[in-house]
Specification:
Porin; Carb-sel_porin_OprB; two-stranded antiparallel ribbon; porin activity; about 450 residues; signal; OprB_Porin; 6 helices; mainly beta; single chain; 16-stranded antiparallel barrel
Length: about 450
């Protein structure tokens, strides 16, 4: 089936390109690679149906360092097919929308094959699109409604957790620099795209600048299974272990706050009612676990009178329960400048720093296990040795070339300090290329 998917996808791209070549394929304002379907696409959207078809591809090659220094090239990709519904236009339901999204991931990760010690659990990843299995998934199937004054919003259905909580922009290929952070540090219970869970959430804008949000998300390990396509469409709740309850406070200050430049600041916390194993003491079980987070994004400068151009900064941090979580905390600092060159007003230059901090208690457990097996220092070849993990720092410099709204290319250079937190593994340099195509 995987081979058939690749062949079909290639044919789809080739045919689509041929159609597009006959319709201003090279136009820098082309919205979709396959065009407007003779005006039908715009008409459907005006009637309430917005179709989404997109491919994201992330390639990476190791330049220097890492656990395995043999040079190779790995590519990971995702196909996304979906529809957004404006139910006011379709059925007369005021202030109500819905979404349906299917995704298919494929490919391999350079981090797994070359950068980290294969005996270590992964921390970062040079290709954020990799993970959660090479299967089809039901990624979104939800309905959302708002009050007439738009102050209250209610959403229910199948969704990822970072759609509405701990959300962050993604201007990078490196995992921790892209999107919500909690899925990278407590991924056993917090599922980001493309995994969905049964959930409901509510948001209340209690003042022009402030919004409070909360929700209930199932904790169900079946949602993360990835052996076959049927796992990606499992809708039952037979093995639910508990509920994840997030709360988030969002502040969007008036433009006068920062010289007329937009910003958004979020403070959040969650509690999981599912039982959690102690990270150090085998057999000890905790009744639940918790995390806290901070997300902040601020535009710092503006290029003349163009509100889209200028320098942006984001600062993100997550802090996890030390009793039950291997990654104690993560920190991220990202800067990107959109429209640095007048001739390329939609291109972006990005520089980001992301750090994983491994829980000291997890490190003590790893050391104790190794000592019980007779190891008192790093073993390069022993299969039963557990590499002791500390922290991992990721740095990425990139340039996003926005060929058109339909096509984006992002060459990037990444540096990984202490891959998977293992001091004995050489720091690594990685070259990458992200491509996004909207069909």
């Amino acid at each position: 089936m995987e081979k058939m998917f690749k062949i079909s996808l290639l044919g789809f791209i080739v045919c689509g390109s041929q159609l597009s070549l006959a319709n201003d394929f090279w136009s820098d304002d082309r919205q979709w690679l396959l065009g407007d379907w003779g005006g039908e696409r715009t008409q459907l959207e005006s009637n309430g149906y917005k179709f989404i078809a997109a491919i994201t591809s992330e390639a990476a090659t190791n330049l220097d360092g890492g656990y395995n220094k043999n040079h190779t090239f790995e590519n990971a990709a995702q196909l996304a097919l979906g529809v957004n519904f404006d139910l006011n236009k379709i059925a007369g339901w005021e202030n109500t929308t819905a979404a349906l999204m299917l995704t298919k991931r494929d490919g391999n990760a350079l981090t797994m094959s070359r950068i980290k010690d294969p005996r270590s659990s992964a921390l970062g990843n040079n290709q954020e699109i990799y993970g959660r299995g090479k299967i089809w998934r039901l990624t979104q199937a939800w309905i959302k409604t708002e009050s007439n004054d738009h102050k209250v919003q209610f959403k229910i259905g199948r969704m990822g957790m970072s759609e509405d909580f701990n959300a962050s922009h993604c201007e990078f290929q490196n995992l921790l620099l892209c999107g919500g952070q909690l899925g990278k540090s407590i991924g056993s219970i917090w599922y980001n795209w493309p995994v969905s869970v049964w959930a409901a959430n509510v948001k209340y804008q209690f003042s022009p600048d402030w919004t409070i949000s909360t929700g209930v998300y199932e904790v169900n390990p079946d949602n993360a299974k990835a052996k076959s396509d049927s796992d990606g469409f499992n809708l039952d709740m037979n093995n639910v272990e508990g509920a994840m309850i997030p709360v988030e406070l969002t502040w969007k200050p008036k433009l006068e706050f920062f010289n007329g430049l937009a910003g958004e600041y979020k403070l959040g916390a969650l509690y999981s009612t599912a039982e959690a194993k102690d990270i150090k003491n085998a057999g000890e079980i905790h009744e639940g676990k918790y995390s806290f987070w901070l997300n902040a994004q601020q535009k710092l400068t503006q290029k003349e009178n163009d509100a889209k151009r200028g320098l942006y900064v984001s600062v993100n941090a997550a802090f996890n329960d030390k009793a039950t979580t291997t990654v104690e905390s993560t920190q991220q600092l990202a800067l990107w400048y959109k429209g640095a060159f007048d001739s390329r007003p939609n291109d972006t230059i990005g520089l980001g720093f992301a750090n994983y901090v491994v829980n000291k208690r997890a490190r003590e457990y790893q050391t104790a296990v190794n000592e019980s097996r007779g190891y008192d220092h790093y073993q390069a070849f022993a299969t039963d040795y557990i590499p002791v993990q500390h922290g991992e720092l990721n740095v990425e410099l990139n340039y996003s070339y926005q060929w058109s709204p339909a096509v984006m290319l992002r060459p990037n250079l990444q540096y990984v300090y202490q891959p998977a937190g293992v001091k004995e593994v050489d720091n690594a340099w990685v070259a990458g290329l992200t491509m996004r195509v909207n069909f």
